[in-house]
Write a structure and sequence with these properties.
Elements (H helix, E strand, L loop, with lengths): L2 H9 L13 E5 H17 L4 E8 L3 E8 L3 E3 L4 E3 L1 H13 L3 E8 L8 H6 L8 E5 L13 E6 L3 E5 L4 E4 L11
Parallel strand pairs: 1-3, 1-10, 6-7
Antiparallel strand pairs: 2-3, 2-6, 4-5, 7-8, 8-9
């Protein structure tokens, strides 16, 4: 075997099959995270589960949250319920600004995970829609320690995300090379 043939075989790359080469991500500006913290504060003070929705845009893999919507909800120490009227108001607010409801964020009294009730209760499900569960009623917000994040993927259902798949970017935008 000659040297060019040997080198060609040695350096020949074998593509790895992927259905989607990009890892799912949730991106949120710092100002949105601070607004989320404020939206969940009343339920924290009552020691009830809290609920908020994030509005933004998604392409099914990367979800950008820009705005927080705090619905009127019935809450207890271990549950929340958003009625149809409050959801309609949220949908109208998103549509008025050409946004999507891209995520549900709610708190748990203890550890963060997708409970059976969370899976059943997450009525919005489309590719790129996120569900974020915050532990301890959100006492550590705006820190994201201990959160559980999931993204709905067509054919796969709720996919668990790693903590580095949730990216907080500085400020509120617009973002340029000089400011982040």
């Amino acid at each position: 075997m000659n040297l060019p043939t040997w080198l060609g075989r040695w350096f020949k790359s074998t593509p790895t099959p992927h259905t989607d080469p990009r890892r799912p991500k949730i991106i949120m500006p710092q100002d949105c995270l601070l607004a989320l913290t404020e939206a969940l504060r009343p339920s924290l003070e009552r020691r009830h589960e809290g609920i908020a929705y994030l509005l933004g845009r998604t392409d099914g893999t990367v979800t950008l949250a820009t705005t927080v919507f705090a619905p009127v909800a019935r809450t207890t120490a271990g549950s929340f319920h958003v009625d149809a009227r409050s959801m309609a108001i949220c949908m109208q607010a998103a549509g008025a600004h050409e946004l999507q409801i891209v995520a549900q964020v709610h708190t748990h009294p203890g550890q963060a995970y997708h409970s059976d009730g969370d899976v059943d209760g997450a009525r919005i499900r489309y590719p790129g829609y996120a569900s974020i569960v915050v532990p301890n009623y959100g006492v550590h917000l705006p820190q994201l320690d201990g959160i559980a994040a999931y993204l709905w993927r067509a054919g796969d259902g709720w996919q668990t995300l790693n903590t580095d798949d949730l990216i907080i970017i500085p400020g509120a935008g617009p973002w340029t090379r000089t400011n982040g």
